[in-house]
Amino acid sequence: MTITLDLAAAPLTPRLARLVDLLGELAEAGEGVVRLAEPVPVRAVTAVPAPAPADEHPDTLRILAGSRVVRQGDREIPLTRIEFDLLLFLAEHPHRVFTRLQLLGSVWGYEHAVARTVDVHVRRLRAKLGTDTPLVTTVYGVGYRLADEARVRVDRFR
After folding, report:
1. Which of 52, 93, 145, 157 could join 97 via S-S bond, C-beta 3.0 to 4.6 A?
2. Which residues contact 89 (CB under 8 A, 6 or more apart)?
3. 127: which DSSP letter?
């Protein structure tokens, strides 16, 4: 089977970016091959960080869902696809506790994995965010949730 993607036609949407990531993961696992039909010209893009609103706290974590970027103040926090999706999912569902299996189904898209996989990604996410109070709270015996005191803002269109 061959899948052809014309990536130069339009900006990369979050869903298309996820598809490209998944195809890359399949190729890395030896389950497929990614070949470029022709060299893709590199376009120079100057990224200008969007300014935070004046009334926003400087420690607020801003999730720019459209561009899949996470910022805290002027600092951009590099996250993997799964770390970003996990953080976005929890931020979009505040005050709710999710079991590991619920997170596997909602974030990973499947439930046929070791539930402790979620623990590993939560630990890595916490380390990268590096705040004094963790944004992702453990509810012992149940699962994880976004902390009540978390300063998080999701911007769907940036």
Report:
1. 145
2. 103, 106, 107
3. H
Q: What is the DSSP string of 27-93?
A: HHTTS-----SSPPPPPP----PPPPPTTS-TT-EEEETTTTEEEETTEEE---HHHHHHHHHHHHS
Are the C-beta atoms of 81 and 67 separated by less than 8 Å?
no
What is the Cα Rg of the chain in Å? 18
Q: Hunting for tokens 């953080």 — which residue is that? A: 87
Specify the pLDDT at position 51: 54
User: Which residues face 153 on adjacent strands?
Assistant: 62
pTM flag (> 0.90): no
At 106, which amino acid appears? S
- How many percent of the chain have pLDDT more than 70? 61
Strands 69-72 and 75-77: antiparallel
